């Protein structure tokens, strides 16, 4: 620059522009890979990125048995702490919270799609995101990034975290998810209770049918054989036969005395006739009991089998009724319930995005990419053949 002129001449300006262009060309890789992403990150996180509010809730699943347990021993302490008694139910609830069914329920109850597509969110963060459509599957993928449902094994509680663009939206979504979880617990209780009771009731119905069939079979047997109770009837017949045998013995003794003392007594023929008639009646009564085909003894076996079947069926019915009562009691006793440890909060300040961390992350990633690309270019130049 000439000392006599306060401004650079045209030639000097051209030289400066040429040197600046060479400098830009020399560092263009660094500018493109590092400086430009950093400037964009600063612009996005500093001016564009919308605030994200996070609402958190915690719950456990317990049963009445856990509530009544005494904490006198280490075993009871373990039983009444955390999710030891409702681990399976808790996993089912967390799976449901992350499921499409929960998202569908949220769409019906609180129109979650509009809450994620609010104008309060920036264009890169709201639903649908760039290069994404407004389908349910896209919403489900977006939902999976905004709702976190997991088990905190350290504290023994289930955690639901919801991210939204307003404090009220995050609170409403979290509260609705808890209400849906409570409905699911009630549904699981109802299903388990219904299944156990239904199985017990089915056994009662089978036992009732068996008792009915046994009674019908016994009644038909009695009508067919013209017997009420063969064992009692056989006893009655034998008692009659024994009475007649005793009477015949007395008459026979009287007849023997007359024949010995007064052989010509006119009463002897009559006594003989009476003895003979009684003997015929005794034989008839004996044949009723032990006859070959129609005797009571031949029918006693079938009758006793039917009686045993009826008694066994009745005992089975009593057992089935007792099992039904026990199943109802167990179903009531083993019900699970969702106990809120921490209710959903209304956040008073946004927790996301972490703007400085985001900017630093972009800078670090850009530098790594720049150095990798720079090393690659150096390697290519070193191994290039000399012209």
From TrEMBL:
Keywords: Membrane, Transmembrane, Transmembrane helix
Stretches that traverse the bilayer: 27-47, 356-381
Listed InterPro entries: Bact_polysacc_biosynth/exp
Protein name: Capsule biosynthesis protein
Organism taxonomic ancestry: Bacteria, Pseudomonadati, Pseudomonadota, Alphaproteobacteria, Sphingomonadales
